[in-house]
Amino acid sequence: MHQTKQNQLNHMLTLRIVELTIITLICAIFIRPLLSEVHSYFFWIELIDLSLATIFYFVIRAGFLDKWKVTISLISSNLLILPLLAISGGVNSPLAFFLPLMPIMAALIGGRIESLVIGIILISAIVLATIFGNVIMDLNDHVYSNEKTISRSFWLIITIVFSMFFGRFFLQKFTELTDQLKDENLQDPLTNLLNRRGLSYHLEKELNKADINSPVALLLIDIDYFKNINDVYGHDIGDLCLTEVAVILKAALRKNDIIARFGGEEFIIILPNTPKTEAITIAEVLRNKVSQETYSEFKLPLTITLGVTESKRENDTTLKIIKRADKALYKGKDKGRNRVEISEN
């Protein structure tokens, strides 16, 4: 759900960028001639830019090349910069000093590919502006200096290349930091398992993928008589027992299984592509492994009770499937604990 909203927001923002480009180009074509007079070449350049921006707009709006829509919007915004650069004096224009910022902005808005594409476009434009620099300067009634133009072009290209690498480096560090914050936000600090937020995220994703041929099974686990451990030995020993049980449960799972701390002494395990019958077998293995060990320096014996359920085809939610597992768990407690109990429906 969150990913869908983010995609919709990105789609809307890219459309707004291209719309702004189109509006600006229309104003340039019809209003600029009333304010200043430049060579007719620029009218045709602006007309071509407007045609390209319009094509980009309808491509993005229709959903074609959806993967490249951010790149297209950034290229569209360059259609404004480059003609303006030419009109204002090419590489000798004060506007040229802002060009090295664009690969960094492209990296932040889009990514590494977008930064690379924008950098290549800018470097190509600078090379062309240098080759035809005398024409650009003549159109604007400036005194042309070949040495000055070549020198500025060289340093502009070097700065843009540096900006492309810096943008990539910054994006990598930003991604690492974001991933770290995301992991911390979804992780239980005591057991290093997923917390309830992480559980909800993964369970919802697995339920959306599940069907009649690949159901999702759920195990709700409770450590039996855990309150007695906290009362007799203290919460430090209780926390140590929780951590050790978590390690045993996680080590016994398959590669694609997902385990989370549900709260207190409870754990939830998501078993993708697993029918209830197979989940019962896995639950019994987990119950036996936990009961065969002792915990903390006091060598405490522990057992667990497990409630087992599986997803339904229609209108199943994270809340419903957890409630079914919870009812099975408490049924197992009522029957004496240290057992696996199956949900009724």
Order of helices and strands: HHHHHHHHHEHHEEHEEEHE
Largest sheet: 5 strands, mixed
Radius of gyration: 31 Å
Mean pLDDT: 81
Could you tell me the strand content as a percent range? 5-15%
Basic shape? elongated
Structural class call reads alpha+beta
N-to-C span: 27 Å
Strand order of the largest sheet: 2-3-1-6-7
Q: Identify low-pLDDT runs.
A: none
Q: Based on DSSP secondary structure assignment, what is the total number of beta strands? A: 7
Tally of helical segments: 13
Helix-residue proportion:
55-70%
Q: How many discrete domains? A: 2
Cofactor: Mg(2+)
EC number: 2.7.7.65
GO molecular function: diguanylate cyclase activity
Catalytic activity: 2 GTP = 3',3'-c-di-GMP + 2 diphosphate
Please characterize this protein's 3D structure.
There is one protein chain. 65% of the residues lie in helices and 10% in strands. It is of the alpha+beta class and 345 residues long. The chain has a five-stranded mixed beta sheet, sandwiched between helices. The longest helix has 41 residues.
List the helices and strands and how they pair.
Elements: H1 2-30, H2 32-35, H3 41-62, H4 69-87, H5 101-109, H6 112-131, H7 133-139, H8 146-186, H9 196-209, E1 217-223, H10 226-233, H11 235-251, E2 258-263, E3 266-271, H12 276-291, E4 294-295, E5 300-301, E6 304-310, H13 318-334, E7 340-342
Parallel strand pairs: 6-7
Antiparallel strand pairs: 1-3, 1-6, 2-3, 4-5
Helix pairs in contact: 1-3, 1-4, 3-4, 4-6, 5-6, 5-8, 6-8, 10-11
Protein name: diguanylate cyclase
Catalytic activity: 2 GTP = 3',3'-c-di-GMP + 2 diphosphate
Enzyme class: transferase
